[in-house]
UniProtKB/TrEMBL annotation:
The keyword Transcription applies. This is DNA-binding transcriptional LysR family regulator. It comes from Actinocrispum wychmicini. Keywords: DNA-binding, Transcription, Transcription regulation. GO terms for cellular component: protein-DNA complex. GO terms for molecular function: DNA binding; DNA-binding transcription factor activity. Residues 1-60 form the HTH lysR-type domain. The keyword Cell membrane does not apply. Coiled coil: none annotated.
């Protein structure tokens, strides 16, 4: 019997859970079966890997040594397997594109850009409210391309093999009830916004944390009253219960006003993510440039953002 990758996963699972019972559940095995497997692994390695006690199991010195090596080896093996899977799927289905996107004006342009390069492409898409799971799906071959984004100080890490292609760093604008006194201004001060009640997205992607940190520079704290996204957030603002922030390409609708924030204190970076071994390996820059042009056209269609760009000399 030779030591295999699955044996290393068993050792790591036991150490992580601290219990043979919990490790067996995590690995979808029976506890007796896992105990027998552990005994065979210990026989192969020539010593006990775990000491059993009333509070569970703890690694022996030999177990600590094996565990350290296993934790170093497994991520590399996982990355190799993921990269191979991505390359195999790309070779088998070169014109299949599963897209993911956070709330962004880029998705429509991305679909158009891919179709321009691959007219016969089979394209599907799904949304997610936070970017990191989408980047992970690109890394693991579950998506070919994703539209994601981040904020200064909260930049997305790029997993091995994933390209993060910046499209634009844009200002973030205030979302106000149309009848709010601040809506009468061409630009609003962040300090004045901080004096209001706020509606913010869920905190998983840390966007509200970034907003609050930016607001603390005014000496004020954000008063978060409502947690909502998309249409729910807009309706809370429309009814005058709160203010919020939006991307500058957000279209004003009845009951809503979008205004720039003086000094551009809050920013957002729009990003495309794809795998180096995926179908955009050679066409990524071409698609990225086309998406950037689509974004510029979206800016031109938005009067609030267009006026802001003119004042900035852009």
């Amino acid at each position: 019997m030779e030591l295999e990758v699955r044996h290393l996963r068993v050792i790591c699972a036991i150490a992580e859970t601290g219990s043979l019972t919990r490790a067996a559940a995590a690995l979808h095995q029976t506890q007796p079966g896992l105990s027998a497997q552990l005994r065979r692994i210990e026989t192969m390695l020539g010593g006990r890997l775990f000491e059993r006690g009333q509070n569970g199991v703890v690694p022996t010195p030999l177990g600590e040594l094996v565990l350290t090596r296993a934790l170093a080896v497994l991520p590399t093996l996982d990355d190799l397997m993921n990269t191979a899977a991505v390359a195999q799927r790309s070779a088998a289905m070169p014109h299949r594109f599963r897209l993911g996107s956070v709330s962004s004006p880029l998705l429509g342009g991305l679909i158009s850009s891919i179709r321009a390069v691959y007219p016969a492409a089979d394209i599907t898409s799904r949304g997610h409210h936070t970017p990191q799971p989408l980047v992970d799906d690109v890394a693991n071959g579950r998506l070919e391309v994703a539209v994601v984004g981040d904020s200064p100080g909260y930049e997305l890490p790029a997993p091995t093999g994933v390209v993060l292609w910046p499209v634009v760093t844009e200002p973030v604008f205030a979302l106000l009830p149309e009848a709010h006194p601040l809506a009468a201004k061409e630009e609003v001060d962040l300090a004045d916004l901080m004096d209001q009640d706020w509606a913010v997205p869920r905190p998983e992607d840390r966007t509200p944390e970034y907003w609050a940190r930016a607001g603390m520079g005014t000496g004020r704290r954000m008063r978060v009253r409502y947690e909502a996204e998309g249409r729910l957030l807009v309706e809370i603002v429309r009814h005058g219960h709160a203010v919020s922030l939006v991307q500058p390409t957000f279209d004003e609708v009845p009951g809503i006003a979008v205004r720039p924030i003086a000094g551009n204190p809050i920013q957002y970076r729009q990003i495309l993510a794809w795998h180096r071994e995926g179908p955009l390996a050679t066409a990524g820059d071409t698609v990225g440039r086309q998406v950037t042009e689509e974004y510029r056209q979206a800016c031109d269609r938005n009067p609030v953002y267009r006026r802001w760009l003119v004042r900035q000399g852009r």
